[in-house]
Amino acid sequence: MNAYQLPEFLNGGKACDVHIHHYRSDKLYMKNKVVLNQNLVCILLNGTKEVFGSQQSVKINNTEILLISAGNVVMWESIAEGNKLESLLLFFSNTMLKEFCAKYSLSFSDNLDTSQAVMSIKKDNYISSFQESIQALRQEDLSMLGRLKIEELFVYLSMKYRSPTFCSFVRNALHAVGENKLRDVVEMNMTKGLSIDELAFLCNMSISTFKRHFEKTFKCSPKKYFTDKRMERAKQMLLLEKRPSDIYHDLRYQNLSSFSTEFKKHFGVSPKQFQRSSLAGV
Length: 282
What we know:
The chain is an alpha+beta fold. It folds into two domains: 3-175, Jelly Rolls, CATH 2.60.120.810; 220-282, Arc Repressor Mutant, subunit A (Orthogonal Bundle). It contains twelve helices and ten strands. Strand 5 and strand 6 (57-60) form a beta hairpin. Helix 7 (196-202) packs across helix 8 and helix 10 (244-250) crosses helix 11. It is elongated and about 65 Å long. Residues 180-277 form the HTH araC/xylS-type domain.
């Protein structure tokens, strides 16, 4: 899976502090590694989007907006058959964000948590009106008005959502460190179904470096670690009387057969047999 460099992939590599792009796709399902070289506000118009960062994962639909600070993320996007995925992507550099904070005298405590790299906000009447105003502008208008529009949105968000979460997001964007801790990345995304390649990407490591550091940290291979964790969770879910046909999807197996095969290999019995005997007290 190739990694997309954004916003360069969308704007032809042009260097600018602000870029707004109306994104459309008719693919029913996409999963991409993305290198965000600028911070991003994503206003989803149609479809669903799930973003996995180094320490958070957030899933939104068209009733929410998404804020993501610059860095490596994995994105899953999906739409209903016959529809198009649509979103407004508002990219802005740290230079623009610093100038905004200076202009409006915004400062943040050094004690704030800086792990909030991804956050979602529910659309309200103002954000819905802001969305419509962006949609009404032509691309050439956005080139001239983009900075003002993003500044307008941030003035509103900084007034209404000056919560620890929002302040943490802004401070993270301004003080992001280059290297993510492997243990944090692994534990945050343990049940998300990400591949070794994708986890290495979130850690800014090659696959071989990731595996080497993983085995040093967890004293086993990534494959064994994640299989053990998934099987332990599967066992707990079966004891809560969840159906195997529901569990395999939650644990991100491709189908029920692959889940059942893995479970039997691990515990010596099928999920149904384990559930039946456990609940019967055998």
